[in-house]
């Protein structure tokens, strides 16, 4: 399965960011560039989805915007041999902190992935 690198191309002060988190780099294993974007969007999804009344949730990650991030196919995975395992391989925030997928917990594992930020000591 191909490995994709998603990286920002808009300047930091661009109005399109709208206060969103800026990812320095996200590396994803996915069958297509579009699927890589969708898989990477889970990094930005809020952990808890609170609703009031009958409001609908409208979530759109900056990783979906082609004017904020570009996607390019890599010849090989920068982190070992992860080909064949669909998902985020590596994600780095703008400040250099790396975010790694946390293990699934609970009976509804397939419904929502959880992520944690790795801190360097």
What does this structure look like?
With 121 residues, this protein is mainly beta. The protein has one domain. Helix content is 7%, strand content 27%. The protein contains one helix and six strands. The protein has a six-stranded antiparallel sheet, with helices on one face. The protein is globular. The termini are far apart. About 10% of the residues have low confidence.
Entry keywords:
mainly beta; globular; 121 residues
Average pLDDT: 76
Which range does the strand content fall in?
Answer: 25-35%
Biggest β-sheet: count, sense, barrel?
A: 6 strands, antiparallel
Individual helix count: 1
How many discrete structural domains?
Answer: 1
Structural class: mainly beta
Q: What is the β-strand count?
A: 6
Q: What is the H-and-E element order?
A: EEHEEEE
Q: How far from one another are the termini? A: 34 Å
Shape: globular
How much helicity do the residues have?
under 10%
Strand order of the largest sheet: 3-1-2-4-5-6
As a whole number of angstroms, the C-alpha radius of gyration is 15 Å
Short précis:
This protein is mainly β and 121 residues long. 7% of the residues lie in helices and 27% in strands.
Lay out the secondary structure.
Layout: E1 3-8, E2 23-29, H1 33-41, E3 69-74, E4 87-93, E5 98-101, E6 115-117
Antiparallel strand pairs: 1-2, 1-3, 2-4, 4-5, 5-6
């Amino acid at each position: 399965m191909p490995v994709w690198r998603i990286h920002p191309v808009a300047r930091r002060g661009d109005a399109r960011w709208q206060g969103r988190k800026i990812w320095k780099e996200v590396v994803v294993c996915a069958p297509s560039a579009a699927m890589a974007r969708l898989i990477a969007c889970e990094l930005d999804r809020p952990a808890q989805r609170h609703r009031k009344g009958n409001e609908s949730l409208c979530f759109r990650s900056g990783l979906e915007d082609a004017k904020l991030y570009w996607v390019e196919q890599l010849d090989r995975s920068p982190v070992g041999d992860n080909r064949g395992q669909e998902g985020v391989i590596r994600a780095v925030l703008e400040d250099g902190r790396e975010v790694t997928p946390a293990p699934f917990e609970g009976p509804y594992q397939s419904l929502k992935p959880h992520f944690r930020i790795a801190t360097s000591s």
